[in-house]
Amino acid sequence: MSTEQLLGICTGIIFGFLLQKARVLRYEKQIGALLFKDMTIFKFMLSAIIVGMFGIMALVDLNLITLSHKSMNMGGVILGGALFGIGWAVMGFCPGTSIGAIGEGRWHAIFGVLGMVVGAGLYAEMYPFYKVTVLSWGDFGKIGLPEALAVNHWVIASVLAVLFIWLFRMFERKGL
C-alpha cells in the first residue's frame, strides 16, 4: 500500500469520525439542511472548506503540492449539481454521509451507495456522448477562481473565510 493510499484511508476514517461526532449523519439533520431549518451540515462543511482551503494554499506556497485544475464547464456543473441535489433529496444522504450511515449500521443507506456505483458506471459508459454534448457546454478551460479574478489565492481564501464566519455567526444568532 502506497503512502498516498494510507493517508487517504486515515483521512477518510478521521472524516467519518468527525461526521458522526457532529451528528450530520442523522436523517433529521439532512432533512433540516434541505429545508434550511438546521444549518449543522452547512456549518460542518464551511468549517471543512476553511481548514482545507488554507491547508491546500499553504502546501502550494511551500511547493509541497501542485494544483491541477479540472476543466470548468457549466453543462457538467449544472447536470452534476442537479443529480447530486436530487439524490440527496430522495435518499436523505449525500455520498459521504451515506457511507457514514452504513458505518453506523443504518443499512438502508446501502441503496444510495448502490445508486452512486450504478450512476458512476452509467456515466463511464456514456462518457463519449457526454464529452461532445453536456461537457462541452460553457467550457471555460482549466481555470480557478484566483486566475479568473486575477488575484492572489490568499485574497480569495481570506474573503471566503470572512464570509463563511459571518454566515456561521448569522446561523448561530438565528438558532440554526
Tags for this model:
mainly alpha, 8 helices
Query: How many beta-strand elements?
Result: 2
Structurally, how many domains make up the residues? 1
Radius of gyration: 18 Å
> Which segments are poorly predicted (pLDDT under 50) over 5 or more consecutive residues?
none
Strands side by side in the biggest sheet: 1-2
Q: What series of H and E elements makes up the topology?
A: HHHEHHHEHH
Separate helix tally: 8
Mean pLDDT: 88
Structural class: mainly alpha
Main pleated sheet: 2 strands, antiparallel
Determine the fraction of residues in helical runs and give it as a percent range.
Answer: over 70%
Distance between the termini: 43 Å
Silhouette = globular
Approximately what portion of the residues adopt beta-strand conformation?
under 5%
